[in-house]
Amino acid sequence: MQIYTSYYTNKKIADLNVTPVGISLDVPANLVFEVPFYIEEIAPSETMIYYSYQMYRTVYLSKLESVSVDRLKKRFQEVLNFGGGGGPAEGKDLVLLCIEDLSHMGDWCHRRIFAEWWQKKTGQVVKEL
């Protein structure tokens, strides 16, 4: 299983063989693909959206540490085993989605903080789609 990150309005997601997973506070309506799963453990809290980058990063990394790699591996496997109601999605990859489009220099988002943390903890690179 490969893990990717992206944003909800990335229309390429609909053409890929990936399982979309929401990791934001809200999932936008009227997407060109379904987002059948949500992993609250990776989503930021509502108060975090008001933090500076450094404070956000510190609080978010602390949240990830409290959840643990083992717990997230289990959650990812649960998503793949469930397969969106259509049976197991084993062998499929996951794409963790949030709202921010990071195409502008200097933009940042919790999904890329997650990606850095995940790589540091597991050695697995999480690419942005």
Structure description:
By secondary structure, the chain is an alpha/beta fold. It has one domain. Helix content is 33%, strand content 16%. The chain has helices spanning 53-67, 69-82, 110-122; strands at residues 3-7, 18-22, 37-38, 93-98, 127-128. The chain has a 5-stranded parallel sheet with strand order 3-2-4-1-5, with helices on one face. Helix 1 (53-67) crosses helix 3 (110-122). The protein is globular, with a radius of gyration of 14 Å.
Task: Produce the secondary structure layout.
Layout: E1 3-7, E2 18-22, E3 37-38, H1 53-67, H2 69-82, E4 93-98, H3 110-122, E5 127-128
Parallel strand pairs: 1-4, 1-5, 2-3, 2-4
Helix pairs in contact: 1-3
Task: Identify the strand order in the major beta sheet.
Answer: 3-2-4-1-5
The N- to C-terminal Cα distance equals 15 Å
The residue ranges in which pLDDT falls below 50 over 5 or more consecutive positions are none
Structural class: alpha/beta
> What oligomeric arrangement do these chains adopt?
single chain
Give the fraction of residues assigned to helices: 25-40%
Number of helices: 3
> What Rg is obtained from the alpha carbons, in whole angstroms?
14 Å
Mean pLDDT: 89
Q: Main beta sheet, described? A: 5 strands, parallel
Percent strand: 15-25%
Output the helix-strand order.
Answer: EEEHHEHE
- Shape, per Cα inertia axes: globular
How many domain units?
1
* DSSP strand tally: 5
